[in-house]
Write a structure and sequence with these properties.
The protein is an all-alpha fold. Helices cover about 60% and strands about 0% of the residues.
């Protein structure tokens, strides 16, 4: 699970953003 620091620093939309990034 490699997520950019920008997305990782967003606790509010952490799960949805992470899933979207992984799918892309």
């Amino acid at each position: 699970m490699t997520v950019p620091p920008t997305i990782a620093a967003s606790p509010v939309s952490d799960a949805p953003s992470t899933q979207s990034a992984l799918q892309l």
